[in-house]
Specification:
Helix 1 (about 1-15) packs across helix 2. About 40% of the residues lie in helices and about 20% in strands. The chain has a 7-stranded mixed sheet, with helices on both faces. The protein has about 200 residues and is α/β, with parallel strands linked by helices. It has a single domain, classed as 3-Layer(aba) Sandwich (Glycerol-3-phosphate (1)-acyltransferase), CATH 3.40.1130. The chain is globular and about 45 Å long. The chain is built from 7 helices and 7 strands; from the N terminus they run H-E-E-H-E-H-E-H-E-H-E-H-E-H.
Amino acid sequence: MLGYAHWWAKWWGFICGIRMEVVRNPKVKKDESYVFTGNHKSNLDAMLWVYSVDNLSKGLAKREVLDFPVLGYLFKKTCVIVDRGDKDSRKNSYALMKEEFSKGISIFIFPEGTRNKTKLLLQPFRDGAFRIAIDLQKPIAPVVMLNTGALIPNRGILFKPGKVKCIFLDPIPTAGMTEANLEELKSKTFAVMEKVLADELKIKN
């Protein structure tokens, strides 16, 4: 299903005039599983991720995405769905992610929790992605997405053609980490992603 979604994203981008560039990282191995973490500025981020990923993976998505025409079906097939307002749903989604990892499948999470509607490069990260990475001793693999907010803004439904980019950063190992290292891991991931965002913004300007 992920392969189908990849081609769907490719042709959707072509039809809409959105070019997707991927900067891969040789340290991110196709045959290994990771907790991928990405910044979230636009609804286009999910489409760019599906287009870019080489690893067998699923995303963590909020229940509301199931209401999207056509896309809702793709989300259902390619993501672990969570109702963020339901404690049992959050617990169940955590169990489902652990099950996917047991099959060698990676998980992609937006650690900001929701789209960034501020002028900040990143919003503060939530704990979930880092807790499960430490729990299962899986590396964090940060991903930075660029220019998605300019093409599909948070407000309104219109989009415009242009170029977006997905950059895979060096994985951050969690071997030997415990719950006591959660804030350290979260801060390190935030710092490397923020730096790339800042550097790319300087280049653009």
